Every structure is written in C-alpha cells, then in structure tokens.
Amino acid sequence: MTDKANYQRIATEEAWATRELLDGYARILEDGSYDDPGFVSLWGHYAGNLTDRPLFIRSRLPDLGELRIRDMDDTGIARQILLLTSPGVQVFDRDTAVGLARDSNDQLAEAVDRHPDRYTGLAAFAPQDPAGAALEIERAVGALGMKGAIVNSHTHGEYLDDPKFYPIFEACAHLDVPLYLHPQTPPRAMIAPFLDRGLDGAIFGFAVETGLHLLRIIVSGVFDRFPGLRIVVGHLGEGLPFWLYRLDYMHAAGMRANRYRTIEPLQSKISEYMRRNVYVTSSGVPWAPSIMLCQQVLGVYRVLYAMDYPYEFVPEEVAMSDALPISDADKRKFFQTNAETVFGL
After folding, report:
1. DSSP string covering 62-74, please?
2. Fewer Cβ atoms within 10 Å of its own Cβ: the N or the C terminal residue of the chain?
3. Which portions of the chain are predicted below pLDDT 50?
4. Do 127 and 96 form a contact (C-beta atoms < 8 A)?
C-alpha cells in the first residue's frame, strides 16, 4: 500500500485468540456443558462452518505473526490494540476461566515483546472471580506491560454494574488504564426475538446488549463511585451517541417522578458521563455520517479508529476512513493521537 498519510493508523479493536481458547469453545460445544443459545449460535457457526469468512477468521485469530502483520502492512495499519475475542473466557466455569485468562495474557505479552512496534495488548480476566480478576489486571498491567483490560460484556447473564464486580473497576481506575467493553451475544433472558430472525450477532444483537450494559453501568452510579474510570466501547458507542438527548430527557423525567425506587439520582447527566468517562471506536462502522456524529456529540478527542479485524477485514474500508471530510488535525486525532492518549502508548 502506498501511504502518504501524515498519521499512523492505530486500530483499536482487533481480535485474537489462543488455540487453547478455541479448543475450549469446541469442547463445550461438543459436550453441551454450556448450552447458552447465543454462544451456540456464534461459535457453532465460526467453529465449524467451512465457508470463506469463518475459515479466514479461524486462520487469523490465533496468528500473531506473519499473516496478521502482512494484512496490517497491506492496509496501512501501523499498530493493533489486541483484545481477546468474544466471548473470551466468560463462558467457562470459574477455574477454567481463570487459567485461560492468565495463559492468554502470558501469550499475548510474548507476542508484544516480539513485535513491540506493531502490537499493544489488553488484559483478559475472569469476571467469574472478581477479586482474582482485579489481581490479574494488576499483574498484566504491572508485570506484562498491558495497556488496559478487555471484558466481553455479560458473564453468564450478569452485568458489571452489580457491586460484586466493583473490584474490576477499582483496579482499572487505580492503575489508570481503560476497560474495553466489547460485545457478545445477548444472554438467554433476552435473545429469543433476536435469534429467530438472525439478529443476535454483530448485525444488531451485539449493539443492543452492549449498549444496555454500558447504560446499566452509567445509571447505576459506577462513574460517581469511580470518577476516574475510563471505558472504551466499539462500533461507535453501540448506538448510544445517537440517543443522548432522549436518554438525558427520559432519565431526568424518571428521576423527577421517582418511578424506579431502586435507582438513585446521578451527579451528572448520562451525556456528561459519555463525554467524560467513555471513548468510542469506529470498529465495523467506517461510515462518515456516524463517525462525524460521534465527533460532534462526544468531542473529537473521544472517537478512535478501529477496523474490527479479522471479523471485518475489508481493505477498502481503510480508504473510506482516510477520506473523512474532516480537518487533517482531527483526522490525526482519530487515527493516532487519541489512541496514544487513551492507551498510554
């Protein structure tokens, strides 16, 4: 690729997986020990389908060497921020999840050491063990050099706004590293109307489920308790930036009416937390109107470039983002300097 851009392209939501993790998915699919319909739909497809896209994804997820770097070079990507693929370790029992998370962090750190100019790692952890998760984040950041942590949304239908998960937020806030909130398929309690029309995955279910998760975190007062906490969310905020006015209005109306007695008032508006504590990436949405809307309502320092490799690997989409009708200075923020700031590069 001939590249005359005056910025580096840092792709901030790029998936990878250990072979042990993929083997684990295959095992629980085969023995039925985790019969969650979303997981079966997602990895039942990717683990066994022989069409071009699943084959490509299965070949690229565990590769942190020649194939991935060649794809990066061919599309002008200078650096990838690497996240353990969805649903990560969160579908396993506690002990298995803890072991897989620790092992994946060790393997990722080795890959970053081999290619320090091309890769940056985020730490996986097992929410099934919140106190242990905090310790693993501390180990991965302090000893392995990770630049944040990755959680693939709900864990067995549970969300991080439950106070039992607060050690995870406390660790990220104390270490001053971001937590990337990445999607997975909706949990059993909400998936049925998505699944029967093929809408449970990236087409829509991911956004609904993860947008809900982020809203739960906000309205539960997590950012009042941990004001320095930073959360990164992909796919341009899973639709929430579009809804900011209505979210503020209806949340305030509900508070005035004391409609939900379990919900305490917040110190700020939902939109203010989105502008202060949340960053969004363009993973899978290389569409100028949506990117520019997010820059307008959240601020140009809050929107980061991402490709969503290898799930969305369309080289032409890089050119689409390069062609954004914004200033050169804001384009450099979008592709490079915002990521350097958020992830401490």
Report:
1. T--SHHHHHHHHH
2. N
3. none
4. no
Yes or no: domain 10-342 corresponds to CATH 1.10.3720.10? no
In this prediction the pTM is: 0.97
Catalytic residue, candidates 113, 308, 322, 330: 308
Calpha distance 60→77 (Å, rounded)? 16
Rounded (to 5) percent helix, strand, coil in the chain:
50, 10, 40
Secondary structure of residue 280 in the 3-state scheme:
strand
- Residue 303 pairs with which residues in a beta bridge? 280
CA distances from 213 to 4, 125, 153, 240, 293 (A): 40, 18, 7, 11, 22
The DSSP bridge pattern shows strands 179-181 and 231-233 to be parallel
pLDDT of residue 263: 84
Residue with tokens 């990560």: 88
Which residues does 248 contact at the CB level (< 8 Å), separation at least 6?
A: 269, 270, 271
Residue 125 φ/ψ region, left for φ over 0, alpha for ψ in the -120 to 50 degree band, beta for the rest: beta
Which two three-digit tokens encode residue 317? Answer: 């989409």
Which tokens in the block code for residue 157?
């239908």
Give the per-residue pLDDT at 261: 84
Say if CB 232 and CB 180 are below 8 A apart: yes
Distance CA 121, CA 148 (A): 8
| pLDDT given for residue 1 in this prediction | 58
Catalytic residue flag (residue 308):
yes
Torsion-angle region of residue 148: left (phi > 0), alpha (psi -120 to 50) or beta? Answer: left
The DSSP code for 333 is I
Whole-number pLDDT of residue 343: 98
